[in-house]
Design goal:
The protein is 35% helix and 32% strand. It has 145 residues and is an alpha+beta fold. The strands form 2 sheets. The protein has a 4-stranded antiparallel beta sheet with strand order 1-2-3-4. Strands 5-7-8-6 form a 4-stranded mixed beta sheet, covered by helices on one side. Helix 1 packs antiparallel against helix 2. The two termini are 29 Å apart.
């Protein structure tokens, strides 16, 4: 049972990402009409569409054992950080105020950067940064100023 769960989305970003999918579908139709390269274009369209769909939303889950960040489908965008590996965290105002080597970013009200004992800093945007901070503090993780 998660202690915290959130799905971060941006309607404008989703619409923006649908443009390349539409263009690829038009290209797929063009290759179908020309009867050349349809199988290659179909594979590329499916692959790129899955990556784009995965980037349309961020799912954040925190439980007693780990912090999980996933894309909409969880195929490409995914990171799991064990709670015992988190050294500290920092909360930033605005979705552009955090930086991590691994950064999961969509327009949102705030962001959280998680500093690991071993591994890269992971940051993600959230619409409820203080709720995330409360849960992480409850789990005994120190907050940086």
């Amino acid at each position: 049972m998660p202690l915290y769960e959130e799905r971060v989305t941006s309607r404008a970003f989703q619409i923006l990402l649908l443009v390349p999918v539409g263009i690829m579908l038009a290209g797929l139709y063009g290759t179908y009409q020309s009867e050349k390269g349809f199988d290659v274009m179909l594979a590329l369209t499916i692959g790129v569409s899955l990556v784009i769909l995965d980037a349309m939303a961020i799912r954040i889950e925190i439980d007693e054992r780990e912090l999980r960040i996933r894309g909409l489908l969880g195929l490409v965008l995914r990171k799991t950080v064990p709670i015992e590996n988190i050294a500290s965290f920092r909360v930033g105002e605005g979705w552009t105020s955090c930086y991590g080597v691994m950064h999961f970013n969509l327009p949102a009200k705030g962001c959280v950067a998680v500093h690991q004992r071993k591994g890269w800093t992971v940051s993600f945007t959230t619409n409820h940064p203080e709720k995330v901070a409360e849960v992480l503090s409850t789990l005994g993780i120190p907050r940086e100023p």
